[in-house]
Structures are given as C-alpha cells and as structure tokens.
C-alpha cells in the first residue's frame, strides 16, 4: 500500500511539473510573439517566413515536374518554336510590382514599349487556382561564336500535368494570339506595275467615329463577328471562308471610312485593287494569289469598269450558265479581263486561294452593275450608305465639336436634315470651319437653311 501511494504521488508530481513547463513555454511564446510584432517590421517578418518556407521545402518530397520550351524546335534546321514566342509575349502581362528585374525597350517603328522577363527573375502565374512558375534560361551548350539561344522552364505540381497540356498551354497560346492581333500593324496594299506596294494604314476610323445610324453599325459588326467565328461551319458545308459586302450610295457618304473602320476592327490588311490596272484574267488571279489571309480586298467604284455592266446582248449568258462557267477555271479567258474572270475569283475554284478574306465592292450606282456580281454568295450583304440622318449627326457633333449629350440647336438641325439631302462629308466640312462649338452649329443651321431654300426654289 505504501509503495502504491508513493508511486501515485510521484506520478502526480511529474504531471504537475509538465503542466508547469507547458504553461511557462506558452507564456514565453506569447511574449515572444508580441515582441516580434512590436519590434520587427511586417515586411521583414514576411521575408523571414518566406526564407524558412524555402529552406524547409528542400527537405520535403519533390513532387514538382518541369517542361522545357526551347526557342528553336530543331536547332540544326533553325525552326523557331511558336510556343516560345507565345510565352515570351504572355509572361510580361503577368509581371507585377513585386518583380525587381525586368528588361524594357522600344523597337523601331513600334508605338508601344517592350517588356521581357530577365534571366535572373522567376515569374509566377496563377491559372484556375493552380500555381505555375516560369524561368528563362540561356542555353549553355551553344558555341560562343553563335547567336545566343534561350529556353523557358515551366515548373508545376505533377498532379496538374493533364491540366497543363489540356488547358493552361492552350490558354497561353490563345492569349498570345489575341495580343498579337491587338497590336498588329495594319497595312494597305496598292497595285502598281503588276506588284503590290505596301504602306501602313493610318486611317483612324472606327465604328464609334462613323456617322452612321447605330442600328446599321450594329448590324455590320454583328455580321463581321459571325463571319470570324464560323470557320468550322464554312469548312463543314464546303464553302471558302470569305464574305462579300457591297457598299453603295452617293459620293461622300462614308464608304472609304467604313472600309477603314472594318479593317481596324478586324485587324485585317487592305488590298486596294484598281480594275483599270488589271490587264487580263490571269493577271487578276496572280494578284489575288499574292494577297494574304485575314485581308480585305477592295474594288472601289466598280461601276466605272464596262465589263461589270449588265449584259444585254443576245449572246450574253444567263446567270445560271455563268455560274457554271466560272467554276471551271479552264473556261476563263486569260488574254483580257472579263466579268467571268472576276466572278471566277469570287466564287470559283480560285476563291479557295485564301482564308478569312473579305471582298468589298463600292459603287455610286448600284443599278449599273451586272446582277450576277451582286447575288448572295458573292456580295452577301448590301449596305446602303445614304444621306446624313439625325442620329448619325450626333456622332459628327461629338467627333468634330466635342459635344456630348443634347444641345439647344440640335432640334432645329434635325428638322432641317429631315427635309434636305446632305452627305456626312459636306456637314463635316462645315463643322471644321469654326472651332467654337456654338458658333459652328449656328453656321451649320444657316448653311442648311440656304440648302433648303435652294431646294424649294428649284422645285
């Protein structure tokens, strides 16, 4: 009994001692934490924690894998890896103020600054809740007399291996394509002496700046968007991926501005084809073959060419007969330019020579053009650009005078525009003559009243 009591007392004393030690340690840790919070700055504490995590991670099981993306797929052949280019452009968009080492510069003829990841810096990206770490390396096994070559290393947790290939890499590529399209320089090509002459398109027109009715602008933009996303549908039904637009109306109604706005909206190059410079059907085919994908082929004032006027002779082919003939390239005359040659380019075998292409015809006189040229499948959307309307005038007032919202003179101008026919170009010229907005509107009212007076006197 005595031994049992002594043992029980010893156990109790031991438990009491451990409790006292635990209590003392807890108190010490609370005091230490309070001292650290008071004496050590938050940034320095975060730095210590990050270093401890990095140190401890070295002794944890390595469950990370890496992918290497070389600058060149085949070093001997010099084939550039498009994925490397995509990553190179994508990563600067993930750079934040936390990164300390970046490369910045401006290339000739470019309007924006270039940012690149430095070799000494890791870039961390978050996608769908997963952390991805990128690092740029210089290949060390290259000969010193050759140009330096680089590679990107992508590191991630191995459990996300499938997601990287199925979703993350496609996301990088898709973002890269969108960025490339956004900053793409749009060129306009004019045909001279049988060759395309290139220059940068500097026309600033956008759909926001066009003096068109809001509904018409919406219809055009919706049609363009629908065309862009229907590549697989065109392929499925066996049609070339192209779209035709006819712009018709009086001079000065904004046909050229609309073409520029479409090019700026789509980021498509423009090929301005003057039919008077086309000497034969084979010349036309060769010129169109040289045009790139994602382009707009423009034939302005097409009614000025006699070949496209309505056929009225007894020997003229019917529309169906013409359709059959233009789909057989061997039947197209090559010694001179003909309507059949143009139709063959638009919807015959030659029309498959380019993808994502838009064809635009402009005319002041739609009735002068052969109906075979204007039917659906050739000119899919006919856009009538008419005289200035009241809603479109609001756009001009905003563009030229900076007037947003309403103005006391607007109603008077609207009443005059309902009675007379005046083009946007004529009104724009009037608004540019006076800098003061109110004075410019007053002068416009006087000008429109004079037009109305002249119209009444003539009638």
Describe the structure.
This protein has 459 residues and is α/β, with parallel strands linked by helices. The chain is 44% helix and 18% strand. The protein is built from 15 helices and 15 strands. The chain has helices at 2-39, 42-57, 82-90, 161-182, 214-228, 231-237, 255-266, 281-289, 319-326, 339-347, 371-374, 390-401, 410-419, 424-431, 437-458, and strands at 64-70, 72-74, 79-80, 102-105, 114-117, 122-127, 130-138, 150-157, 187-192, 195-200, 242-248, 269-272, 295-299, 357-363, 381-384. The strands form four sheets. Strands 10-9-12-13-14-11-15 form a seven-stranded mixed sheet, covered by helices on one side. Strands 1-8-7-6 form a four-stranded antiparallel sheet. Strand 9 and strand 10 (195-200) form a beta hairpin. Helix 8 (281-289) packs parallel to helix 10 (339-347). The longest helix has 38 residues, at 2-39. The radius of gyration is 35 Å and the shape is extended. The termini are far apart. The relative contact order is 0.08.
């Amino acid at each position: 009994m005595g031994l049992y009591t002594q043992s029980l007392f010893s156990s109790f004393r031991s438990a009491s001692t451990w409790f006292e030690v635990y209590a003392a340690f807890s108190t010490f840790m609370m005091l230490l934490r309070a001292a650290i919070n008071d004496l050590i700055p938050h940034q320095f504490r975060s730095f210590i924690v990050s270093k401890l995590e990095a140190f401890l991670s070295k002794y944890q099981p390595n469950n990370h894998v890496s992918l290497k993306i070389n600058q060149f797929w085949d070093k001997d052949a010099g084939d550039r890896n498009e994925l490397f280019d995509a990553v190179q452009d994508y990563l600067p968009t993930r750079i934040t103020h936390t990164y300390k080492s970046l490369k910045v510069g401006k290339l000739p003829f470019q309007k924006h600054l270039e940012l690149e990841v430095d070799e000494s810096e890791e870039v961390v990206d978050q996608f769908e809740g997963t952390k991805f770490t990128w690092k740029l390396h210089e290949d060390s096994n290259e000969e010193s007399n050759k140009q330096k070559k680089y590679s990107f290393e992508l590191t991630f947790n191995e459990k996300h291996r499938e997601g990287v290939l199925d979703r993350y890499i496609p996301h990088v590529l898709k973002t890269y394509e969108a960025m490339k399209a956004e900053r793409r320089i749009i060129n306009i090509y004019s045909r001279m002496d049988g060759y395309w002459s290139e220059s940068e398109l500097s026309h600033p027109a956008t759909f926001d700046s066009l003096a068109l009715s809001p509904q018409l602008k919406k219809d055009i933009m919706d049609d363009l968007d629908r065309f862009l996303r229907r590549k697989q549908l065109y392929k499925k039904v066996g049609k070339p991926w192209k779209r035709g637009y006819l712009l018709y109306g009086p001079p000065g109604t904004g046909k050229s501005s609309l073409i520029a706005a479409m090019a700026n909206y789509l980021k498509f190059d423009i090929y301005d084809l003057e039919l008077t410079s086309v000497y034969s059907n084979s010349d036309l085919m060769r010129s169109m073959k040289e045009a790139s994908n994602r382009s707009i082929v423009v034939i302005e004032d097409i009614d000025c060419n006699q070949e496209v006027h309505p056929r009225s002779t007894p020997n003229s082919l019917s529309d169906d007969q013409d359709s059959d003939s233009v789909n057989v390239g061997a039947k197209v005359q090559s010694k001179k330019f003909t309507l059949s040659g143009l139709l063959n380019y638009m919807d015959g075998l030659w029309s498959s020579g380019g993808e994502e292409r838009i064809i635009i015809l402009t005319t002041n006189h739609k009735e002068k053009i052969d109906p075979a040229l204007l039917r659906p499948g050739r000119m899919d959307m006919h856009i009538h650009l008419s005289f200035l309307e009241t809603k479109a005038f609001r756009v001009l007032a905003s563009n030229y005078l900076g007037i947003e919202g309403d103005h006391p003179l607007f109603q008077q101008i609207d009443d005059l525009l309902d009675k007379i026919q005046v083009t946007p170009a004529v009104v724009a010229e009037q608004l540019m003559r006076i800098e003061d907005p109110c004075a410019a509107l007053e002068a416009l009212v006087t000008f429109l009243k004079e037009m109305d007076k002249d119209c009444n006197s003539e009638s």
